[in-house]
Structures are given as structure tokens and as C-alpha cells.
Design brief:
It is built from 14 helices and 15 strands.
């Protein structure tokens, strides 16, 4: 199979899906690898290193898209790339399909085979850990007086108390943020709806953090005392309410900071909207907002190394065994299949966008096989199935 490493073109994105080390493994498995010129440069991987690893450099995106059976990159398929999608070609990237109906339509119209990367990680994406840790650091940067924040130091000084921080969500992202802020001396409260997660975090941090069950009312009760809020909640896209609305921000001191790492649209924070690294902050009701949508892109070398290492087994599974067999062996690949030759195969997208869908195992003809188990990617369910499927 011919595999292609695309250069990401999203504003502010610097990562690459494969480093030269992963290219070496793919070539060793008997596949041909094309790398778009400059695909890894912003993460510290020059074209010469990819050539040394056994890849061929494609000078343009058009050339790579045209020649490869399977292409991959980090972020979404941009509008300028829709023209390159073609029938039967496998595309792997962070599609975020439920929130991007135009992208989904382009995928379906092309009849390509699309896999949404964010649903494919068995042990959680390294990007989530990076977003939490680096997001906490960007929050501290936003707290600086010179950036509009109230100017409190995270751990305080002699005679001056440190920061009070509220983290919404105790998953991989929230745990990443917590590890940084706790180590730097902040007083941290974590809210979650999973009591098991709260128990685990209390034990891990020797009862030196605060934990609360997450409700809008609980958030409102502590918000006036918080210097910073970090949102790590993946908010169900069908919900129209918010965990924090604009009026609640007025209870916080001027210059407080809100970091929306999840940054969904719509999301859990009413006042959030996507920003980029070149203009990352804005203020609503006196609260400084940091809402960059691809925080891990700021530490592109480390995140590329971690992401490429975690992704390699999935890529090799598909390359070596074909998509259907890979979906039998790995339920996380199966659940992340978004579209197959013109048919939607992603349940959350079906529910949110009102489109019919078909289960991946049905359209691949593997439903009667012994399938590797994987939990659903989200709690969103859909019974809106295609009435007829013709392949």
C-alpha cells in the first residue's frame, strides 16, 4: 500500500502525524511512503530525515493526495483539501465529524473511507495529556498582568497567597492540568460526575486537593473564589445549556482567567469561541479567555513524537491487514470509522446532524466475526439507520 504523510495546513498547527522513525517502521513492513515537503519541518523533522528513513518527498499536496492509497495528518480536512478526496482512498485525521457538517458532506460526496483519529486511541490520545499540561501553562501566562490577568503567581510568595484553580473534568486532559498546577503550588479543586475518578484523584494526591461533584450549581458556589477555571469537559453536542454562562462570569474578580481546552462548538462555556496562537486571548465580563483550539501545536516536537508513537500500531494494522481485518482486530479503529464509500458510519454524527448511518461492522461485513471490544466513543446514540445500502 502507498501511505502518505500530509502537511497540516490548519492555522497555528505545527505537528506531524509521523516522524522519520515511524516511516522507517512502515517501510520495513513493505509499504511505500510519500511525505509532503515540509510536513515535519515545524516539529523539527526535515525532509532529509524522511528520505533517509526510506520515504519519497512529494513536492505538493495534490501530488501526494493523487498517488496515495492511504493518507494521514493531525487535524481536520480543510475546505481547500475537499477537492483531493476520492473514492476508496483511506483518510486518517482528527475529523471531529459531529461538529463539522460541511466536512462530513465533502467526505460522503467523495466516497472516500474516513477514520476520525480522536476516537481511535485505546489509551487516550497523547494530545489530551499535552493539551491539559500546556493549557495550564498558557492559563498561567494569561494570568500575567501584562496579558490582562489579575497578576497572581501560581504558588504565591511569602505573605501573598497563591492561586485558586477550578478544573472541570477529571479525565486525561484534566489530570494533565492538575499535575502541572499542583506541582507549582496552586490550590486546586477538581469537579467531575464520576465519583470513582474523584476518589482516585484524592488518593493520588494524598487528599491535598479538593474534589466536588460537578453541577452548574456547584460551579456557581465556588466561582467567586476562583482565580482560574480550566474546562476539560467534552460537552455533549446535542445539549443547549452551559456549565458556565456569561452571567456567572460576573461573580469572578476582574482579571480572572478561563481556559477552555475542550473548546467545543457548542460547548460547556457560553462565552467561548475558537482562537489561534497568534491572537489567543479575549475578555468577556472582565474574565480573560484563552480558547486556542490546538494547544498541543505549541509544543509540536514533543506532541508529534508522542502522537506518532501511539498511532503507529493502528496505521500498521490497517496497512498490513486491510481495513476490514483491522476493524475486527481493533475495536477502537472500528468505532472511529466515520464514512465508508459514501455511507456515514459514525453514530454521534448521525444523531447530531440528523443523517442516517450504518454500523461499521455491518457495512464491512464483519458483524458475524469475533470482534475486539471497544466502548462507544460518546454517550450519544442514534437509531436513524439507512433503509437500504448498495455496495
Amino acid at each position: 500500500m502507498i501511505f502518505g504523510v500530509l502537511k497540516d495546513i490548519k492555522v497555528g498547527e505545527n505537528r506531524t502525524i509521523c516522524t522519520p522513525l515511524q516511516v522507517t517502521s512502515i517501510v520495513a513492513a513493505g509499504h511505500t511512503v510519500l511525505v509532503q515537503a515540509g510536513a515535519g519541518a515545524r516539529a523539527g523533522f526535515e525532509d532529509e530525515a524522511y528520505v533517509k528513513a526510506g520515504a519519497t518527498i512529494a513536492e505538493t499536496a495534490a501530488e501526494l493526495w493523487a498517488k496515495c492509497d492511504f493518507v494521514a495528518k493531525v487535524k481536520e480536512i480543510e475546505e481547500s483539501e475537499y477537492q483531493y478526496l476520492r473514492e476508496g482512498q483511506i483518510v486518517y485525521c482528527c475529523i471531529h465529524p459531529a461538529g463539522h457538517p460541511e466536512e462530513v458532506q465533502a467526505i460522503l460526496d467523495s466516497k472516500c473511507i474516513a477514520i476520525t483519529a480522536e476516537d481511535s486511541h485505546r489509551y487516550g490520545s497523547p494530545n489530551c495529556e499535552a493539551a491539559g499540561k500546556q493549557g495550564a501553562l498558557f492559563g498561567l501566562e494569561s494570568m500575567l498582568t501584562i496579558n490582562g490577568g489579575k497578576g497572581k503567581f501560581v504558588g504565591g510568595f511569602a505573605g501573598a497567597p497563591g492561586m485558586n484553580v477550578l478544573i472541570l473534568g477529571g479525565g486525561i486532559v484534566g489530570q494533565g492540568a492538575l499535575s502541572v498546577l499542583y506541582a507549582l503550588g496552586a490550590s486546586v479543586t477538581v469537579m467531575d460526575i464520576n465519583m470513582g475518578t474523584l476518589n482516585m484523584l484524592q488518593t493520588r494526591y494524598d487528599n491535598k486537593i479538593n474534589t466536588m461533584y460537578c453541577t452548574k450549581e456547584a460551579i456557581a458556589s465556588v466561582l467567586p473564589s476562583m482565580d482560574m477555571v480550566i474546562n476539560c469537559v467534552k460537552w455533549p453536542k446535542e445539549r443547549k445549556d452551559f456549565l458556565i454562562d456569561k452571567e456567572m462570569l460576573k461573580t469572578m474578580e476582574k482579571g480572572s482567567v478561563l481556559v477552555d481546552i475542550s473548546n467545543d462548538d457548542p460547548g460547556a462555556i457560553e462565552s467561548s469561541h475558537e482562537t489561534h496562537h497568534d491572537n489567543p486571548r479575549y475578555t468577556v465580563n472582565g474574565v480573560v479567555h484563552y480558547c486556542v483550539s490546538n494547544i498541543p501545536g505549541a509544543v509540536a516536537h514533543s506532541t508529534s513524537v508522542a502522537l506518532a508513537a501511539e498511532t503507529l500500531p493502528m496505521l500498521l494494522n490497517i496497512l498490513n491487514n486491510g481495513l476490514a481485518e483491522a476493524c475486527v482486530r481493533d475495536g477502537f479503529i472500528r468505532r472511529s470509522l466515520t464514512a465508508y464509500r459514501g455511507y456515514l458510519t459514525h453514530e454521534e454524527t448521525s444523531a447530531i446532524q440528523g443523517r442516517p448511518w450504518i454500523r461499521p461492522e455491518d457495512i464491512l461485513g464483519i458483524a458475524d466475526r469475533k470482534l475486539d471490544a471497544a466502548p462507544p466513543a460518546t454517550v450519544t446514540r442514534s437509531n436513524h439507520f439507512y433503509q437500504e445500502v448498495k455496495l
